[in-house]
Amino acid sequence: MKKDYSFSYLLLPLAFLLVLAGGLLVQRAGIQYDTAEKPGDLKLLPQANVNVADFFPNKPVEALVLFDPLEEDTKNLNENIIATLDSMRVKYVRFSISSGQIPVLTNYQTVIVATSDLSLLESQLSGIVDWVGNGGRVLFAIRPFPSSVFSDLSGAVGIISGNDSLIQASGVEYKTDFMVGGKGLILESDDLKYTSFPVQLSKDTIVHLVSADESKTPLLWQYNYGKGRIVFINTERFGSKEGRGVSSAAYSLLQNVFVYPVINSSVFFLDDFPSPVPAGTNDIITNQYSMDIDHFYTNVWWPDLQALAKKYNYKYTGVMIETYDDNVVPPFTKQLDTDRHQYFGRSLLADGGEVGLHGYNHIPFCLAETGVNKLFDYPGWPTTEAMQLSSYELFGFTKEVLPGNKYETYVPVSNILCSDARIWLPSVLPNLKVIASVYINDPQKLHYEQEFTESSDGIIELPRITSGYVPDNFVRWTVINELTLHYVNSHFAHPDDVLSEDRGSKQTWDALRNQFEDYVIWLYSSAPGLRSMTAKQGAVAVQRYVRLAVDARMVNGTYEINLGNFYDEASLMLRTSRKPASIEGGTISAVSSDMYLIRASKAKIVVKFEGETP
Ligand SMILES: [Zn+2]
Hints:
Elements: H1 8-30, E1 63-67, H2 75-87, E2 92-96, E3 110-113, H3 125-133, E4 137-140, H4 148-153, E5 159-162, E6 167-170, E7 172-174, E8 186-187, E9 193-196, E10 199-201, E11 206-210, E12 218-225, E13 228-233, H5 244-252, E14 257-262, E15 265-270, H6 283-289, H7 293-312, E16 316-321, H8 339-350, E17 354-359, H9 372-375, H10 384-401, E18 409-410, H11 419-428, E19 434-435, E20 453-454, E21 460-461, E22 466-467, H12 473-486, E23 488-493, H13 501-504, H14 509-526, E24 532-533, H15 535-547, E25 549-555, E26 558-564, E27 570-576, E28 580-584, E29 586-590, E30 595-600, E31 604-609
Parallel strand pairs: 1-2, 1-3, 3-4, 4-13, 15-16, 15-23, 15-24, 16-17, 18-19, 19-21, 22-23
Antiparallel strand pairs: 5-10, 6-9, 7-8, 7-11, 11-12, 12-13, 14-27, 20-21, 25-26, 26-31, 27-30, 28-31, 29-30
Helix pairs in contact: 1-8, 2-5, 5-12, 7-14
Bound molecules: zinc ion.
The site of zinc ion has 5 residues, from loops.
């Protein structure tokens, strides 16, 4: 018997597939993007040498910083204390305790003890304590060495019993919400090990931080002594750069009302994106998705990241690599396959993101003679001209890939940028406005380390603070510090972290994505009002922040904040145990139980508090 075989039932799915393929083709080729500046977009201001420190010449000196220039242990702490005070616009004088009698304390509101060795202050500590009893405020910024001087002092800082021998402790547990995002977190980390005094504290102390280990050693507390206040830090671990936020919070606890400028910006970078995608397959990807790397990035990784950004309302800044060719000798061959660069670039821009530059190839800008690239297994460039020619090639390529896009942001390859290249770079990348390298350097200091600042050549330095899809406890600690000090998130990830056993910890993309989502949820719920931005927009915020001068004082029970170098808007953080009732010159919103984000729209802000007679 003959059977009829009909293939017509295949026509419908076939037609469907054809339509789908056609749709994808149109989508890949034709994503529309718009690079025009929108009305209301704030612009970078022209380069100018503005006076920030002395903008208000009559602003009184607030803090006396006591330090010992010969003490090696506290060099780092002192650098970071100074950077923190500058960042908060606290006017201070520094006094070397080895040079004799300290200045008359009644000329200051606060004293910061930034030395571990109290013996040089021995004869003067009772005078400091008396001054606190009469209303003075002291921050002990580092756990002192055990000594009889410290034992004599312990009662005045709220210790009722203790032991002179230090104990090993680790991690941090936040007992209050005195730092942005900290409340309730217990962060154990191998990178947070230190020594502390085991102490019993008076019930009148407010303990903000304890160690995360079993000892629960108090690490940071405040204590009202007489009419004054002492804030005490019981570890040597918070003096590093990523610990500046603790110093800022500890200092601000000294005052009943305290305000400081912040950047108020959250930026997510995707390094090496767009870039040529590695050909072939990867076991982790094949096992989970049955697809090659190319299809995985296009159909899984990028749509997942786009969905997260849409859901939580943030943006990506991608930085482009033309080729992974390791050539460092001209001529530099043009990348002919532009499909991927175009597709992902357009998609980034269409989502409101930014596309910046990373490199013609992935070789850091250091001459061979410096020996730097060799340390990272990269070839060194033979001449400056070769690096510059590769930049011209990159710039030409990227203009063709995304016509109209300005490419104002540059991320140094592997965060390495030798000092001579930093100088000439703005002259070969004509639209360059922003360099985004790293905030925290490696121990050998080989990376291009930055502050959030404006350089003398007009470039905005916008460092990245943290990285990875799975931020560990030390990363969270760092983020909490920078949210508290600058109200800033600056985070990067690589597409190929997913493929790397080191960086992706052998986890599936689903697992990485879910942990990254948890991190984003935590970030934005911890920092209400934090503005999501591209790198360029973040740079605009950094420029406003870095130029802002602040002079604040209580006048008849109301808090008056005067701003210098105010252009159009500014953000400030207010810490106060009193409840703000009204504001003039801006808006105010709660960040924690005693921290408030102020968005200034005028150069003068007036805050009134509840419980005051008008
Ligand atoms: Zn890279």
